[in-house]
Amino acid sequence: MLTEATVRPATITAWMTEIAVAVRAQRDRLTQLDAAIGDGDHGTNMVRGFDAVEQALAGQRRDLPPGQLLILSGKTLVATVGGASGPLWGSALRRAGRSLGDAAEIDGAQLAAAVDGALAGIQELGAAAVGEKTIVDALEPAAAALRHAVGARQPLARAVDAAAAAAEEGARATLPLQARKGRASYLGERSIGHQDPGATSAALIMRALERVVSRED
Ligand code: ADP
Ligand code: MG
Question: 17 CA to middle of ligand 2, Å?
Answer without folding.
Answer: 22
